[in-house]
Amino acid sequence: MSPQLETIIPLTMARLKFGLGATYELGYELKAAGAGKVLLVTDKHLWDFQLIDKVKKVIEDEGIELAIYDQVHVEPTDRSFKHAIDHVRGLAFDAFVALGGGTAIDTAKAMNLFTTYPADLYDYVNKPIGRGQPVPGPLKPMFALPTTAGTGSETT
User: Fold this and answer.
1) Least C-beta-crowded within 10 Å: which of 95, 112, 119, 129?
2) How many CB atoms lie within 10 A of CB 6?
């Protein structure tokens, strides 16, 4: 008798919204997720294009408290991650918003992890470089607003 093979593979993932005006729904989505205090993680150069101001207004118009970390380092390193994590150490957020490319999104994911489950940076980094500890539980909701085409970070 041959083994039965699975023929249906479900894919469960976060909702994706895209299209003209999708950013204006961010405040609603944050409220629906129960967020009262949010950290916006971004690149300081996006101030020049008024993108940070736009997202800031959308969030604050819903009465949500907002903190901004705009010191994202292009192609993050362990040092840039440590800087970002140290910047918010001891602070609590209900959700994270990443505005930018893969670097902003990856940095926001790290900040989410280390503010939710404080540890040494290398605790969660894969072996042999780190200790390879599993993430202990669920993280806070995170919303990504990619500004570049081709980044894959928003889907992981």
Assistant:
1) 129
2) 5
